[in-house]
């Protein structure tokens, strides 16, 4: 079955609180959004916040983009997924990803090694456990023996950036999560997803593609671009995102960001994201301009658009969220 086109809101809320996130989810539901998708990069734990959002809404699907595979074992993930899938059937979508060197090595003090292999082994164990089978697994990285829980049907999505992981995500995951891509690279991203799906014998059209879309509805484009640079120049300095930016066709910008960050020149790093590149990644402008870009992504094959306001002053956040409510926009 081909996935429906869906509009989603990214959470936690700009104030970073549980109460604010619940209120934002309820507002999104009232406006006609179909989903909310949580980030899990520190602060509010997404796997703890998800059931609160599910409990305080009626129909929203709650996804996570993404849970780092290095910070929880497959048995812990499977047992958590089982609780949420039983309590809220059909409304919870866990998304797994490798995260980045900065988070895994810097925040958690764990080695960021062989991310694609770890993803494959994590998914192999999860499939066994979620099927209700006892584990008997010794991989290159992971091991589990003798663990069993009741079978539960829950889809697991995988985040991906470059070709190998894009194909792997489509091959072994139930959906693919994208982030921070220049729009010019989207067609080849979709092509690799199709290759991975076909390798697994799947119809590529049935693999849901989810993307967090950095969006700012504003008349002050310069300020919004500056906010994007302040937030994401550090992202693109990390090895995984820097290589991704280069693969997307921005080799010079990637090199300048990498060198600027290494020399601790934050102004140089931010300046390496020129207006043209920012505008190729983020949706900044009037409601109509942003809606047009979201529609373009949907037409290219992205099924679920996660609106993420990257300049969350109260007025701008409100205008951005309302611009994609059902009364203003139909995808």
Task: Walk me through the structure.
The chain has two domains: 6-233 and 282-323, Luciferase-like domain (TIM Barrel, Alpha-Beta Barrel), CATH 3.20.20.30; 237-272, no CATH class. Helix 6 packs across helix 7 (186-199). Helix 7 (186-199) links the parallel strand 8 (175-179) and strand 9. It has helices spanning 18-31, 46-55, 74-87, 101-107, 115-130, 163-172, 186-199, 221-232, 239-247, 251-262, 266-271, 275-281, 287-300, 314-323, and strands at residues 6-11, 35-38, 61-68, 92-97, 136-138, 143-145, 157-159, 175-179, 208-217, 283-285, 304-309. By secondary structure, the chain is of the alpha/beta class. The model has no long low-confidence stretch (mean pLDDT 97). It has 14 helices and eleven strands. The longest helix is centred in the middle third of the chain and has 16 residues, at 115-130. The protein has an eight-stranded parallel β-barrel with strand order 1-2-3-4-7-8-9-11, surrounded by six helices. A two-stranded antiparallel sheet has the order 5-6.
Core attributes:
single chain; 331 residues; alpha/beta; TIM Barrel; 2 domains; 8-stranded parallel barrel; two-stranded antiparallel ribbon; 14 helices; globular
**Structural class of the secondary elements?**
alpha/beta
Average pLDDT metric = 97
Trace the largest sheet across and list its strands: 1-2-3-4-7-8-9-11
Please mark out the parts with pLDDT under 50 across 5 or more consecutive residues, or reply none.
none
Do you know the CATH topology of the largest domain? TIM Barrel
Radius of gyration: 19 Å
Q: For the record, what CATH class of the largest domain applies?
A: Alpha Beta
Number of helices: 14
Q: How would a textbook summarize the main sheet?
A: 8 strands, parallel, barrel
Which range does the strand content fall in?
15-25%
């Amino acid at each position: 079955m081909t996935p429906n086109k869906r509009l989603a809101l990214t959470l936690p809320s700009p104030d970073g609180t549980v109460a604010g996130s619940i209120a934002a989810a309820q507002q999104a539901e009232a406006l006609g959004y179909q989903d909310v998708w949580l980030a899990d990069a520190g602060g509010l734990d997404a796997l703890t916040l998800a059931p609160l959002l599910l409990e305080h809404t009626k129909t929203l699907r709650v996804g996570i983009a993404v849970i780092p595979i290095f910070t929880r074992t497959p048995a812990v993930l499977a047992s958590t997924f089982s609780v949420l899938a039983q309590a809220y059937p059909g409304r919870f979508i866990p998304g797994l990803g490798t995260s980045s060197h900065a988070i895994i090595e810097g925040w958690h003090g764990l080695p960021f090694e062989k991310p694609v292999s770890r993803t494959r082994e994590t998914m192999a164990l999860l499939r066994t456990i979620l099927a209700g089978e006892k584990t008997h697994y010794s991989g290159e990285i992971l091991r589990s023996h003798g663990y069993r829980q009741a079978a539960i049907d829950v889809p697991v999505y995988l985040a991906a950036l470059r070709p190998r992981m894009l194909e792997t995500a489509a091959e072994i995951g139930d959906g693919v999560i994208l982030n921070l891509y220049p729009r010019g690279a989207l067609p080849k991203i979709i092509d690799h997803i199709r290759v991975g799906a076909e390798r697994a014998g799947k119809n590529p059209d049935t693999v849901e593609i989810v993307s967090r879309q950095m969006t700012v509805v504003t008349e002050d484009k310069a300020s919004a671009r500056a906010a994007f640079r302040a937030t994401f120049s550090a992202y693109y300095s990390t090895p995984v995102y820097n290589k991704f930016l280069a693969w997307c066709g921005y080799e010079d910008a990637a090199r300048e960001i990498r060198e600027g960050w290494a020399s601790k020149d934050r102004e140089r790093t931010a300046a390496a994201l020129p207006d043209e590149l920012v505008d190729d990644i983020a949706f900044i402008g009037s409601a109509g301009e942003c809606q047009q870009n979201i529609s373009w992504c949907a037409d290219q094959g992205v099924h679920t658009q996660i609106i993420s306001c990257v300049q969350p002053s109260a007025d701008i956040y409100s205008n951005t969220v309302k611009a994609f409510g059902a009364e203003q926009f139909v995808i």
